[in-house]
Design brief:
2 copies of one chain form a homodimer. Chain A has 271 residues and is α/β, with parallel strands linked by helices. Helices cover 42% and strands 16% of the residues of chain A. Chain A is built from 11 helices and 8 strands. Chain A has helices at 16-29, 44-48, 60-64, 98-101, 106-119, 136-144, 156-175, 195-211, 232-236, 244-247, 252-269; strands at 3-7, 33-38, 76-81, 84-89, 125-129, 147-152, 181-187, 222-223. In chain A, helix 1 packs across helix 11 and helix 5 (106-119) crosses helix 6 (136-144). At the A-B interface, helix 2, helix 7 and helix 9 of A face helix 2, helix 7 and helix 9 of B. The complex binds adenosine-5'-triphosphate (2 copies) and magnesium ion (MG) (2 copies). One magnesium ion binds next to helix 1 of chain B. One adenosine-5'-triphosphate (ATP) sits between chains B (12-18, 40, 42, 44, 132, 188-189, 228, 230-232, 234-235, 238, 253) and A (11-12, 155, 157-158).
């Protein structure tokens, strides 16, 4: 059984990539096999894991071409910890074209899904790092995943975009993927000391609480614990092509992502 | 003479709106007349200034329609300080359609420009708050403005996008608007204590220094001083529809934006 999660938020710079990369490595450190699929033409997850997008021979883009270039054997093994593994399907900037080219080919929505079906038996967790948009690359991720996790900041303006995001998930859920659920929110760059952050978090928790029992994809959603505190080390690590566990494994950012990973894996094992 | 500036960065959540709104009010507090044009369908600048995008009767979207709905007399006066004024052309979420509809009508590129020509005599500064994309709304802003200012964070991943941004400005400069210059960068959410931030700032300053004398739109660009420090008050203010000068006028965020505004106005007056 494979847990497939799209990490999405159409707002930019909210912590999607930082969460995907560090969560993946933390889950791998627990001895589990994780695949990261970098759907973003910015290729930040690819860079963050130490891979140069300019030198990549096979990528998400090849998967989406016509005809697609098969590649389950071409996934890059970027981390290994005992039985744990992080695989990567890298991004290249060319896949920005896919945002628009795909528009005419509903069939292409199926391509990523077919690739995922082909590799599912090799990984227990598959994470899609989505670009900051509700365009076709994100929609592809939503079509392939069973769950959505929303990285976001506990800011007033960040809340403004959540409604639209949930609406999109609902549309995809009704259209293309009726199994799609919103599992929850990971709070990123959290300023825990401030009343503002606490008020926003309370708003979110109340909203999710009131959604229980409703027939909506976020009826089971929660705010993951703990929030990931703002910690400059998390912004420094990518410049070395390292996850936080390689760069500064006991800093607050590492502690927080390790703790989020633990609850993320525990809730899966509990099923 | 009017100083028209597009505040752009295709990366999301980097501080464009916070900079446009607070710089506009700070410049207005110096007794000057500023117009804010909210090009972003997210309408954050509109919200930040205390205007409800759902209740707006005339907006950027009307300007871009076919035929356009004229509106120089329908600009909202949102702030007044003695001789200083902040006017607003608000955004509505409908203008997201403009990102795509405009695609077939090169003529529409001219509409925003014609409106700006019609109001230029009423304002000394015109600020365009661009959406986080290099799509048509941003391109419209670049077609109308003489200058580009890039709000950004001093992070490694933030630097990755700057190349593409400058390339876009250069293309627009060669194509549609040969007067377009990049005046510089405003550093947002700055963690001044960290060596990482200082290294990124040094990289930026070196890059601009080496660009002097070259035939590129950023040959005169600089990093504005001071950097705007991370300060939670700047994230709280929008939830009250207030600028930082109404919300907490002596906090570090207010001091920093006031200082940036002063160098911004001084350099203009010195011409
Ligand atoms: N907890 C944190 N503390 C400090 N910096 C952080 C933290 N989380 C992320 N960052 C930094 O903030 C910036 C934005 O984060 P990130 O790239 O993960 O967001 P994103 O949502 O993937 O952005 P995009 O929309 O561009 O894909 C990056 O420079 C990153 O290194
Ligand atoms: N110096 C600062 N200190 C703390 N928070 C800040 C600061 N500057 C901006 N913020 C907050 O960071 C978030 C992103 O800022 P902002 O909305 O200005 O970015 P943006 O580039 O306009 O985003 P978008 O790409 O979505 O338009 C907002 O919640 C804002 O309130
Ligand atoms: Mg990202
Ligand atoms: Mg904005």
């Amino acid at each position: 059984l494979t847990r497939t999660v799209a990490f999405m938020n159409q707002k930019g710079g909210v912590g999607k990539t930082t969460t995907v990369v560090n969560l993946a490595h933390a889950v791998c450190e627990q001895g589990r096999r994780v695949l990261v699929v970098d759907l973003d033409p910015q290729a930040h997850a690819t860079l963050h894991l130490g891979v140069d997008p300019e030198s990549v021979e096979w990528s998400v883009y090849d998967l989406l071409l016509d005809p697609p270039v098969a590649g389950s054997d071409r996934v890059l093994k970027v981390r290994e910890e005992g039985t744990g593994v992080v695989g990567l399907v890298p991004a290249v900037t060319d896949q920005a074209a896919a945002e628009h080219e795909l528009a005419d080919e509903a069939d292409r929505m199926g391509r990523l899904a077919r690739f995922i079906d082909g590799v599912k038996h090799e990984y227990e967790f598959i994470f899609f790092d989505c670009p900051p948009s509700l365009g076709l690359l994100t929609l592809n991720g939503l079509a392939c995943a069973k769950e959505v996790i929303v990285p976001m900041q506990a800011h007033f303006l960040a809340l403004q975009g959540v409604g639209k995001l949930l609406e999109t998930v609902q549309l995809v859920g009704q259209g293309v993927n009726d199994q799609l659920r919103v599992s929850g929110v990971v709070l990123c760059m959290h300023d825990e000391q401030t009343r503002h952050a606490r008020e926003v978090v309370d708003d979110l928790k109340t909203f999710f609480k009131e959604s229980r029992g409703l027939d909506v994809p976020w009826s089971g959603a929660r705010v993951y614990d703990p929030p990931v505190r703002r910690n400059i080390k998390l912004a420094e690590a990518p410049s070395f092509g390292e996850t936080i566990f390689e760069y500064a494994k006991w800093c607050p950012g590492a502690q927080d992502y390790r703790a989020v990973a633990k609850s993320f894996v525990d809730e899966w094992d509990a099923l």
